Amino acid sequence: MSMTQHAEPAVTTPPASGPNKTDGRTSERPLALRLLARPEVGVFLGAAAVYVFFLIAAPPVRDGSSMSTILYQSSTIGIMALPVALLMIGGEFDLSSGVAVLTSALTASMLSYQLTMNVWVGVIAALVVSLAVGFFNGWMVVKTGLPSFLVTLGTFLILQGANLAVTKLVTTNVATDDISDMAGFDQAKKIFASSFDIGGVQVKITVFYWLVFAAIATWVLLRTKYGNWIFAVGGNKDSSRAVGVPVTFTKISLFMLVGLGAWFVGMHQLFTFNTVQSGEGVGQELIYIAAAVIGGCLLTGGYGSAIGPVFGAFMFGMVNQGIVFAGWNPDWFKAFLGVMLLGAVLINLWVRQSATRR
Amino acid sequence: MDRISGFRSRRFAPAVALAAAAALTLAGCSSSSGGKKAEESEGGASAGKATTPRMTVALVTHQSPGDTFWDIVRKGAEAAAAKDNIKLIYSADPNAGNQANLVQNAIDQKVDGIAITLAKPDALKDVVSKAKAANIPVVGLNSGVSEWKKLGLMEFFGQDETVAGEALGNRLNAAGAKNAVCVVQEQGNIGLTQRCDGVEKTFSGKLQTLFVNGTDMPSVKSTITAKLKQDSSIDQIVTLGAPFAMTAAQSVSEAGSKAKIATFDLNKQLTSAIDQGTIEFAVDQQPYLQGYLAIDSLWLYKNNGNYMGGGEQPVLTGPAFVDKTNVDAVASFAAKGTR
Amino acid sequence: MTTTNGTGTHGAVLPESDAAPATDAPIVELRGAGKSYGNIRALHGVDLQVHPGRVTCVLGDNGAGKSTLIKIISGLHQHTEGDFLVDGTPVRFSTPREALDKGIATVYQDLAVVPLMPVWRNFFLGSEMTRGPWPVRRLDIERMKKTADEELRNMGIVLDDLEQPIGTLSGGQRQCVAIARAVYFGARVLILDEPTAALGVKQSGVVLKYIAAARDRGLGVIFITHNPHHAYMVGDHFSVLRLGTMELSADRSEVSLDELTNHMAGGTELAALKHELAQVRGVDVEELPEEKDLTAPVATTGEGKS
Questions:
Q1: Which end of chain C is more exposed for a tag (fewer CB within 10 A), N or C?
Q2: Is the pLDDT reported for residue C59 higher than 80?
Q3: Residues B60, B92: contact at Cβ < 8 Å?
Q4: Cα A54 vs. chain centroid, distance in angstroms?
Q5: Smallest CA–CA separation between A275 and chain B, in Å?
Q6: What is the pLDDT confidence band of residue C233, given thresholds at 50, 70 and 90?
């Protein structure tokens, strides 16, 4: 019967299909091309291009300690970009992530100072608050079914206002008091904000955390059940629910991971600068999201990697500091930044398209 | 099922952690140093209260949320209001159009006087004339030293940013600086630009400008570090806000630079940094005075018809230098957040 | 073996299936079941039996209550009248998970898979294989890929790259992967929600083939469709829903395709049906040998009514 010949060639007749190895629909693509189709490869090439560019244009970049500075800035963006990327793969946004960092730092600082307690009490309280904010975001999104854009925009405004108002209420200023002479500060500073000497170059501890977190996130994403669920809930929430993926748990926990990241970066800021300005952090959420998107995460969810945002954050830090190292006219700073980022994104896009083209 | 129970326990995690925190407190986990307990109890700054009839004054600024500086202005205004039996309505918006709306709002409330900042004078022209038409006296403060008369404001309290910059430049010359960098935390802000321009006018060495992202402190820090590494001959950093001076100090030690730091504006941490010598000096424009005088002047006008500065000249509240020689006198006030 | 020959092949396959005569008791049974949403009665007095190794077709036009019926059986909604029995015991599912645990798996038309995920990840989604102790418990990727490949081959689906996103497969293939998945995870009853609705004729043929394959493995299949031709190719029992009630419930021996088409269409819907069938015929004309068998009764009915 003619059907068998014309039927979808991918499918052969049921039991008699042993020797038929391929479906003949796709020819085996070269390894290099398959590699290029990975979400993080485009951004890797983009980041490498930016790096080489500044290596040539800005001689100070060649210095090891300069690279340490660049990596430091990248790490403070990158640590947050990781959970934000996972959340984005899971199909949601968090616009409150920038101010949530400040909420965490303010909580720890004010609680310790006002109650004159060991700073670790504040650190733990800040963790609780950060996770609670994440839980609230996730719970609202899952329970109401509203777009996370709206829910977290609300949280963003609430936190922004609360950061200011509570700080003002508690300290009567808009910045917190210096906690550097309090018990436990030095210990906490060692953990959250110290630096290491590597071959004569001082490297900030956040750089290590950043890379370790990225490695863990990659492993979780690609090699665990939970990672599988993240892709699934972002790719198709209803299918996932229908086959038994705990969608509610996955989404809420992703929001709480962002809270965890905000807590960590918040602690770093607090123990680096000793005080916190309550109005900061606004606008940072977009940089985190940008790092994730440059890193190959799809805005619509279901696709991306944890390594990509690492390069995305690095590209941000590199361009940001590279312009200063190159000594270019600072009036053009933002314009340069924009051009470089757009260029990097275009390289990324071009690579992905040429890799997936058949 | 275990997934669900795992989830549940997460839900209760906050409560558990709070309980743990409480337990820690009970266990004597209090800090033996620093903290609120170490802070000296503040003495009440308010003097007696005027017996003049209650009046309402609006203070409308271009403050962006969470700026330490404006907090001090507001405290000054509140002190004057408390003393003069004035009900103070404070509102602020960095967006000029929104600020104009807030002024209109004050006019609609039929206040007895309005104090405004003129960061973007053109946007406020219309509402100022509306206020005048409604017979509400308007005074200016902080920004707009060159525009206040054109707009027809009664009086002005503030610092001429260019003059302040020039004064700082002169002082750098005296200290022998050769290569300075001016750190601007908000690109396109007129007042900040005028400060840098003022410094450039009088400073005999080389002056570069560095733009940083003021809302992201780690970024500010690494950008200044990068600049110091890029040009190791920099021997002077000028920051345009107190928190940025503190961050610059960290950058200097990180980059292994010998650069000294001077800054505009003051805060609590800065006074101790000046005392310790980390920061060389600060140019204070006395924001408390700006807020205080603006409100007080409206009271004086209403009750005695006085004009400060005669209505012709601005009342300059700065530049007042704070350095190692006079920081002790300033420190206790800065600690209270009023200087 | 092809199922596209319709009755012929079907008749040949049925006796081979050893599961059918052995277990005569229905796995799933509805007795006078119904569902009201507030004061709207979506479904009323429905009797349905699903036997292992048999395909029960549920036909009906849009809004006839087909989706409500599936939702009750798959655990998304609960019935408000009558009885719902699994293995002779009355049940009331509150989540799809409970239905799954009883071996009732549903393959939805649109939401069968996560398009951007690789085939093997989709195959095991929600029931992943893992190895290692907890902190480092990880996916057993090798085993999952191997198993997925084997299972798909057993169902007669051969893919050269299980890493390709399932979204790159054709609609029919995706349905087939979902069916293979349900079979592998121990489904005893397979609910297929309009699996052929969005597919072309060839693709539909492929899916029908796997419905037969699933039946031959001893599964009870509930095949929801509004296409009597597709239903008649694989069905053992036919239930036609109309406006929320059962209009026809007949075994294959009791009803002809002609009758089924009539029941399915009934009265005013006929014009639309005629149009639909004309389209089917238009596509299939060259390929379907039984073209005459199919078109003749339809044509007369169409003329008679219009």
A1: C
A2: yes
A3: yes
A4: 24
A5: 9
A6: confident
Q: Do chains A and B touch, with touching meaning 3 or more CB–CB pairs less than 8 Å apart? A: yes
**How far apart are the C-alpha atoms of B154 and C263, rounded to whole Å?**
91
Same domain, B73 and B172: no
* Most confident region among A181-195, A268-282, A328-342, C169-183 by mean pLDDT: A181-195
Chain C touched by A358 (CB under 8 Å): no
- By residue range, what is the domain housing residue B99? 55-159+286-318
Q: CA-to-CA distance for A121 and A129, rounded, in angstroms?
A: 12
Residue A125 falls inside a structural domain: yes
**B85 lies in the same domain as B155:** yes
Write out pLDDT tens, residues B52-86. Answer: 888 999 999 988 777 778 888 999 999 999 999 99
Mean pLDDT across A220-238: 91
Q: What is the ipTM of this complex?
A: 0.76
Please name the chains neighbouring C, where neighbouring means 3+ C-beta pairs under 8 angstroms: A
A73 neighbourhood in chain B, CB within 8 Å: 218-219, 222-223
Residues A315-347: tens digit of each pLDDT: 888 888 888 888 777 677 778 778 877 877 787
Residue B326 forms part of a structural domain: no
β B260-264/B281-284 pair status: parallel
Say which residues have a Cβ less than 8 Å from residue A293's Cβ, sequence separation at least 6: A88, A299, A312
| In chain A, beta strands by DSSP E | 195-198, 201-204
Q: Which neighbouring-strand residues pair with B208?
A: B181
- The number of C-alpha atoms within 13 Å of B51 and in the hemisphere containing its C-beta is 0
Does 3.40.50.1000 match the CATH number of domain C7-103+188-255?
no
Alpha-carbon radius of gyration of chain B? 23
In the structure encoding, which two tokens stand for residue A271, read together? 């123990």
pLDDT surpasses 70 at B6: no
CA distance, residue A11 to nearest chain C CA (Å): 5
Question: How many Å lie between the alpha carbon of A291 and the closest alpha carbon of chain C?
Answer: 21
Q: What pLDDT is recorded for position B71?
A: 85
B168 and B107 within one domain: no
Mean pLDDT across chain A, nearest whole number? Answer: 84
pLDDT-derived band at B109 (thresholds 50, 70, 90) equals confident
Residue of C97, C100, C114, C190 to mutate, testing the A interface (most A Cβ within 10 Å of its Cβ): C114
Q: At A140, which CATH number?
A: 1.10.3470
Q: How many domains does chain A have?
A: 1
- Interface partners of A (3+ CB pairs, < 8 Å)? B, C
> Is residue B178 less than 8 Å (CB to CB) from chain A?
no
Select from A7, A22, A18 the least CA-distant residue to C2.
A7
Q: Record the tokens describing residue C191, joined without a space.
A: 């609910």
Cβ burial A224-234 (10 Å sphere, 16+ → b, else e): bbbbbbbbbbb
For A285-302, what is each residue's pLDDT tens digit? 998 998 998 888 888 888
User: pLDDT at position C127, please?
Assistant: 82
Q: Which two tokens stand for residue A302?
A: 């279901």
Provide the residue ranges of all domains of chain C, joining segments of one domain with +: 7-103+188-255, 115-185
Amino acid occupying residue A345: V
Q: Are residues B148 and B192 in the same domain?
A: no
- Per the prediction, chain B carries an average pLDDT of 84
State the nearest Cα–Cα gap between A285 and chain B, in angstroms: 11
What CA–CA distance (Å, rounded) separates A168 from B230? 39
A6 occurs within a structural domain: no
* Confidence tier at B47 by pLDDT (50, 70, 90): low
CATH of residue B90? 3.40.50.2300
Q: Is the pLDDT of residue A7 over 60?
A: no
Report yes or no: B36 at the A interface, CB cutoff 8 Å.
yes
